[in-house]
Amino acid sequence: MKRFARLTTISALLFAASLPTGAAHAQLAPSAAAPTQASDPSEARKANIVIIGTGGTIAGAGAAATNTAAYQSAVVPVDKIIASVPEISKVANVKGEQVFQIGSESFNNERLLKLGKRVSELLKQPDVDGIVITHGTDTIEETAYFLNLTLKSDKPVVVVGSMRPGTALGADGALNLYDAVLVASSPESKGKGTLVVLNDEIHTGRDVTKSNTFKVETFRSPFGPLGYVVEGRTLFFRLPARPHTMQTEWDIDKLNKLPEVAVVYAYGNVNPASVDAAVKDGAKAIVYAATGNGSVGDYMVEPLKAARAKGVQIVRASRTGSGAVIRNAEQPDDKYDWLVTDDQLPQKARILMALALTKTNDSKELQKILWKY
Prior knowledge:
This protein has helices at about 1-15, 25-30, 80-85, 110-125, 140-150, 175-185, 275-280, 300-310, 335, 345-355, 365-370; strands at about 45-55, 90-100, 130-135, 155-160, 195-200, 200-205, 210, 220, 225-230, 235, 260-265, 285-290, 315-320, 340. With about 375 residues, the protein is of the alpha/beta class. The strands form 3 sheets. It has an 8-stranded mixed beta sheet, sandwiched between helices. A 4-stranded parallel beta sheet has the order 11-12-13-14, with helices on both faces. It has a two-stranded antiparallel sheet with strand order 7-8. Helix 5 (about 140-150) links the parallel strand 3 and strand 4. Helix 5 runs parallel beside helix 10.
């Protein structure tokens, strides 16, 4: 062993001697002589994030600290919400902008378009690195899916809300907002489409849905979250598989109106008049939130066929909450010229159908779109 050590030392000296003047010293110099990188994250350039306020529970207030489910939503302005979480300033340079001050149950097509266009304007600014949207949880999944399909930017867009108002014991809004800014500031969030962040989880806007009326862990994705936010770290474990943002055929800047799409909910004694009313009100498509695998009661087949004969597209979806609807299984879709969703929930199928109808009314092409996104 000693002989081997001497040979190794001699080899190293001979190699150093063969190098140009000064090079040998550089090779043998301690590694500590090399310049070190800054270890303090605050020394790196902080991202510029715009936080858009639209209202919701995250902007709500209750009469008492014990009011976690009974409160008034959409009363606290976005700038005050930001100010209540001073830790955000350590993560990013943020500024607030109030676009709406409403409960998310009040979102409609016009407000969706207005919000999307404003987000698009901000994303085009070179000094904006990402967007966070504070939003009510009732329809957060619909807004996120719409933005996921229509924004033409790979910059991070994160939609965030809370299940408890800021006045409540155990309020979740402050941490959710902090986490959302973290995710929007992270380079790893780029190119992943519109994201939804709540309860330490990062979800894709396509998959996520609200599954409980009051619990903070209400938001679920059938295939699990994309990742987590843990102790100030953004951790991704999977990627969105379906096309989004830059990969879709819809551009929010070119959309000025969305066709009317109705959702008719099925149950054991569903009234066919609901289909007739949707047709009368000018629906271009009806998403039938059917039982099971898109099954249709025998007494509902004729009303739906009659609606299709009037040019209204019929889309079989499922009210179960997950799973794909199989074409020509429960109903002869080819025969009736009906459509089926893939695994989109009825409320998300409505968003996709409205967008699809801006491109085509051909049922075969519409079916391809439903399967693609």
